[in-house]
């Protein structure tokens, strides 16, 4: 058994997990429309590889790009490309962006599965390629391309794969139910990832209350008789599921500020990602569905659903028995870090782990902020050991240099400080605003630096030209003088 | 269906300033009850005068500043200041003492600096020190605890003393008041008496002074409850008691006939009230964990130094105000190591 470490701060939050944890996973089925946003993350835009009115089948690639951080999107059911147009995408600022919309035909035809691969006989590069082609990204929420993460480069000595099954946000139980329903896929996926990374140690970290998941995973692991992979149970504390926090709890290692886990020899992947990797490599199936928790008192039936990626949220709400009368806010993700959606005609994407339809008494309403009384509860709760209170003063005063000095960019925006603040100050909003101001300023100063360089170069060139001109004139004069002198000498000799 | 979009976190806050202040007030009840038992009903009159004055002053200033009046009064911070000041005053102090102190605390020490959260000095202690240096006589006129009182005042007597400054007939000022244990210790040490001889005096009890020691223990009970409720940071009382205790132990071990025991210092005067209720005022204290320990140690050490070598018998108010001055610097030099950063 590994020693359990801890990080500073964190919160024991009421889990609300029972709402969805007990019910079996239901299949949300094929919706009438599937919507696929083409922007994967800022700056990473896919191109549609299908045209309007094309017929597509499940598993067919419909969008891809050359970009290093791009992963293809596969149609999740059969139908025709109905439109390629701007639709609301799941984004904190409620943006509309280019989406492919597929009108499904209900036949749910699929491409034949690719030939299953025995990963033990393949090079890591081949496995990474399979994972990329299957469209797999981190399913824990960040949606970073898994194949990229599996290639940390020769400079970093990675020795451990850490599978993140710590579902620390309240309400969310999709990983928990996945581990119970498909323990074998998780274990197999872990072994594939370990092979792709060529590491000898794999750890699956799950929270202590997940007793059923632990039992099922242990059974599955028993059958594999693999001594390099182990399961650890860690205390349920928010935000243990944060990558750097989890690494600290499980291994005692601290990922350096601004660094990545590979810097301390660890690659972290979500358990759902591992299961998707298993499906892709061992069964030849690309990522077209995932498990999503649909919960909150704002829906009538709370449960985990197997959902086709691209399904509009409104369809899932219908599957969950519709909204209850006191629904107030629709959140993608959990109540701590999830973002509120302006409407439900927005699709779920690969990163969507939870749809929380919250009622009035589950969420904070309009907050009336009081003055900070410097109680320090925020600092006690901060998992990064920041001084949220000082950051608040400095960000409020637009004292951006001080914000940087107090390590603003180490803030993971987990929201702990804000939840414990007795003055109800929207702290995280101040930090977000200060961060973006600093970034904007950095960009501006970069721009002005470029302009200055250009101007300096221009002055240099001018000076050089002048000098060259003067030099040429001087040489000309000298040559002329020489000729004159020569002529004069000749005259004398004559 | 349309929804409003709000940024995360969406979870409801788990605490509020109102609740914090209310808990502080509740935790003061055992101490106040003990004060009332040993020193008479005057404490309740002081609290009433201070609370009403503070509330009216705060309402007036808020109105002037164009701030919400009712919502702000509801945070109970003015009431906490008023009660802390009131329980520090002699229980037969004339009414205007309490009024002047409360006005100074709320108007000058709190609101002239920007109100709750912005005041650099503990308002109650600023008010107390103003009174102590301006009106030393009424500020040191404490009645004896009930165990050794020779005259017993009725409720009407006390009210007359406070509001009309009239002593009951045939009772001299000297019969009405008695030196506090700290006072008596300081005066008689000055007269070259030994600690053991002084402690045979009638005002001294088991640990420190008769009556006083039980009041202090009652404040300790309330303070421990605040710790348990996580309303106050343990670092400050721990640091304060450690700082005072260490210096007192040092003095006591060098010369126990000239320096009173650590137990005496810890249970005398306002030590325990100060450790758990006054030094822990978050607004004016250091805010980092390490800074708070140093802040507490500093107050504890200052209390001892002023008690022994200063001009005043007790020193909690002065020490807290002096430490308030250091709080911002303490916060700056005790910033914790951020996750993933080098030490």
Summarize, please.
The complex is a heterodimer of chains A (about 500) and B (about 350). Chain A is of the alpha/beta class and about 500 residues long. Helices cover about 35% and strands about 20% of the residues of chain A.
Structural class of chain A comes to alpha/beta
Strand content of chain A: 15-25%
Largest sheet of chain B, in brief, is:
none
Order of helices and strands of chain B: HHHHHHHHHHHHHHHHH
Total number of helical segments of chain B?
A: 17
Overall pLDDT metric of chain B: 93
Tally of DSSP β-strands of chain A: 19
Q: Number of DSSP helices of chain A?
A: 14
Helix fraction bin of chain A: 25-40%
CATH topology of the domain at 18-27 and 118-319 in chain A: Rossmann fold
The poorly predicted ranges of chain B are none
In oligomeric terms, what are we looking at? Answer: heterodimer
State Rg of chain B: 21 Å
Give the distance, in angstroms, between the N- and C-terminal Cα atoms of chain B. Answer: 51 Å
Q: Averaged pLDDT of chain A, please?
A: 92
Low-confidence stretches of chain A: none
**Greatest chain-chain contact:** A-B, 72 and 42 residues
The general outline of chain B is: globular
Named at the architecture level, the CATH assignment of the domain at 18-27 and 118-319 in chain A is 3-Layer(aba) Sandwich
What would your notes on this structure say?
The complex is a heterodimer of chains A (494) and B (343). With 494 residues, chain A is an alpha/beta fold. Among the domains of chain A are: 212 residues, 3-Layer(aba) Sandwich (Rossmann fold), CATH 3.40.50.11540; 123 residues, no CATH class. Chain A contains 14 helices and 19 strands. In chain A, helix 2 packs across helix 5, helix 4 packs parallel to helix 6 and helix 5 crosses helix 8. Chain B has 343 residues and is an all-alpha fold. Chain B folds into two domains: 164 residues, no CATH class; 154 residues, no CATH class. The longest helix of chain B has 24 residues. The mean pLDDT of chain B is 93. Classes of the chains: A alpha/beta (494), B mainly alpha (343). The interface between A and B is large, with 72 and 42 residues.
